[in-house]
Amino acid sequence: MTRRLATAARRLLRHLRLEHRIVARGLGERAILAAVAPLRLLVRRDPAVVAFGASLDRFADNAAHLFLYVSCLADPATVPVWISGSPEVVQRLRALGHRAELRWSRSGVRVALRAGIYVYSAFPSDINLWLGGGATTVCLWHGIPIKHIERDLTKPSLTGTSGATGTSGATGTSGASGLVGRLATALRRPPPDFLLSSTEQVSRHAMMSAFGVPLDRCWHHGYPRNDVLLAADRRPDRAFAAGATWQRLHDAGRVVGLFLTWRDDRSTDIVDGRLVLNLAEICHRHGATLAYKAHYNVAGPPVDHPGCVVLPADADLNTFLGECDALITDYSSAAFDVLLLGRPVVYYLPDLERYRRTRGFYYDPEALPGTACSDAATLLAELDRLLAAAELPAPGPEQAGLREELWGGYDGHASVAIAAALRAVTQNR
Prior knowledge:
single chain, alpha/beta, 7-stranded parallel sheet, 6-stranded parallel sheet, globular
């Protein structure tokens, strides 16, 4: 029920202009935070208790992968607890021996009030927005952004780029104006205490301005969700409940992933059922399998085809990404994740100019290594051409250069480095 209400609220807010959304959200948050502030003063925070959570009560993204690693350390100085509004997620984790609590259960409230550190994939609300005051916040985000995010959403859109690393040229000045714009700026979320990034260059290029976090508060360790991509055994942990679907993709021949991001003003995927079926048919004809997953913020079309495996929208994408031999995406950070594997990328960009104008980019999709398609017919022809080849193309120098820029020396051990950083935070509290 909680998730349905959250989804309905998101859909309603998408009909408002961005600055109006920020004001509406901010005013509501400030009022409730003021009301519950006395409750937070009654409980002393324990630096050893670390609360984890992910968006829309899923068990996914960087927070989930890091939680599993920290839970398996059995470090007496750290008590990791997963917080979710999903009874199914909590029961599954408990059955596997992990600590997990429902957000508004008595135990969940106690953890939210006592935890010294909040580790989340997107926002403190992944754990408990109302009871998190006073905790050290660590935002792991969920990928290197191609598109503008967070505080950069109100910047002027992209006006010109130079190569793959072209920026919007914005200087941090808000695009909103008047009273509503000033209120939106005043009511935006406070920055996290620490922010996970991949390299110093990525932090300077995007993450620092997006979150308002100084460079010395950015952790450059890579992403836990990508550790599995570089592991010798990519078999998913049972906590992700992905075994049978993963095995089907693992046993398939070539696998093409279709993973697109969401649009701010849409509640459905940018691809319709006919296009997904046509992509699946091309894959089937070439002895390949299409793996399709809608973004968890939108509803995907129903698809029933022997050449397509539909992944649950709330599943952890990177659990399956390593099984994909090629990727179809758009402005999703998955395009940067597969750089670690050297897989070919096809970009489906039917709304590029509108997206450029209304959202803006840190990295111009048309300048990234891969093939850009502006319409469905071109996308279908490109996939047919790609799969008709005896071998998929090997990574070229452009991919290698971009990988170095975005990932540096990351070697698949982000969870190890972040766990050590969390331990240092715990000791300093």
